[in-house]
Amino acid sequence: MRRDRSPGMKLFFAGVVAAVLVVPLLAVYALVYDRESQSERAQAQITAGWGGPQVVAGPVLVVPYLAETVEAETVNGVVTERRRQVRRELFVSPLDQSVTTELAPDRKGYAIYESVVYSAAMRGEARYVLTDELESLDIESSDLLLDEAELRFGISDPRGLTDGARVVVNGAAASLDPGGGLQAAGGSGFSAPVAGWTADAPLQIEYSYGLRGTGSLSLVPRGGETEWRVTSPWPHPSFTGGFLPDPELSETTADGFEAVYPGITNLALGQELVSAGDLQGEPIPVGEYAVAEPVRPVIAGATQVVTIALVDPVDLYSQVDRAVKYGFLFIGFTFATLLMFDIVGGARVAAAEYLLTGAGLVLFFVMLLAFAEVVGFTLAYVLAAAAIIALLTAYSAAVLGGWRRASFIGLMLAALYCVLYVLLNEETYSLVIGSVLLFAALAGIMYATRGVDWAAVGRKDEDALT
């Protein structure tokens, strides 16, 4: 009795070999993760010398003031009150401000890795007044130390600041000091003293500075009304955060984008213009490319950010990762074709031949990853697919006993690689395409094996012996 010649046993051996190939597929998946981690470390090297994802806040006018505190003190069993003056800070947000940003993108490389960086030209105007909110804070105007007031600018990564920063206060240029940032930007930044302001008239300022960063730029809106206008030649922006640009005033084309946030008010932010402390709480986290941030509830008074990310549309590691997940589809289709030639066509395919064919299919993903890091995803995909199709077609000619059958294997693999490329670039309908493809394959297998007697284990050999 020759059980290995039965359709059922052939199917069993093909299934066992397919299950064994799960191990190298998982190893390739781990390899993609490891290479992606190396890429992130390389990008961190670029960031270290350039500047990371930037969060800017302010400017905020900070005015020191004297407050009286009452402390209870017990002396010889007698409780007495002790009054003393302490120095505190009053944070005044602008009544209105306008910010203009020009983003100049670039790519910086480290070894074979690249990262999207930018240089930002920040310019703005702001106006400050002391409102009646002082009374609600129980602060007297006479307690304010106006001669010690300063403007604070928050920059999350001050390493990215470039030369040419300038602040003009009521028409006079102010000196700049490092440090003294804002909590919304991590406490880093720079400050400028305000001299000669008596609070009788509004404080008008103009400022400009250059900033380098990587991946994304975030603004913490603060004040009565904040307008932010951003222009850049980068054609793939991502807008996230607490507010989105006005679609009627904004535009994204192949030549770049212009994003306009026409007016973010303190009513929308849930913040007072004058407060006795800096805004606490961390801004919404921004990743290296800051895409697809989850929608978060807006909490009154909480720090909110507006983020613009320069997205790299060719994230080769995510594409290779998605491709590996379709590895079972390749193995299944190829093994099913070999099985049909084995059972229906009369060719004899051994378990070792299934295994070598599967090894070639797995090797495609390793070659794809290796080539993509050097020449880019699309060209790497073409080179790896062509190499594996040629290899398996030639091998199938020997296994199946002729080039006619092998050409069918080659055409099927070429069609599979074309479909996979479409699936990798079409996220919206990838599930629909994949399910229809599987349905067609299942229908074809059912039709081809409709006359196969799967229960006839060695029946033909037994009949031959009798």
Amino-to-carboxy terminus distance? 12 Å
Total number of distinct structural domains: 2
Order of helices and strands: HHEEEEHEEEEEEEEEEEHEEHHHHHHH
CATH architecture of the largest domain: Sandwich
CATH class of the largest domain: Mainly Beta
CATH fold label of the largest domain = Immunoglobulin-like
Mean pLDDT: 80
Instruction: Count up the helices.
Output: 11
Low-confidence stretches: 281-301
Description of the structure:
- With 466 residues, the protein is an alpha+beta fold.
- The protein has two domains: 3-40 and 316-465, no CATH class; 51-63 and 81-310, Immunoglobulin-like (Sandwich).
- 38% of the residues lie in helices and 30% in strands.
- It has eleven helices and 17 strands.
- It has helices at residues 7-20, 22-50, 133-136, 266-269, 316-325, 327-343, 351-375, 377-400, 403-425, 430-448, 459-465; strands at residues 54-75, 78-92, 96-110, 113-128, 150-155, 166-169, 172-174, 177-178, 189-193, 203-214, 216-220, 225-232, 237-241, 251-253, 256-265, 274-275, 306-310.
- The strands form two sheets. Strands 1, 2, 5, 8, 9, 11, 13, 16 and 17 form a nine-stranded mixed beta sheet that branches.
- Strand 6 (166-169) and strand 7 form a beta hairpin.
- Helix 6 runs antiparallel to helix 7, helix 6 (327-343) packs antiparallel against helix 9 (403-425) and helix 8 (377-400) packs antiparallel against helix 9 (403-425).
- The chain is elongated and about 100 Å long.
- The N and C termini lie close together (12 Å).
- Mean pLDDT is 80; it is low at 281-301.
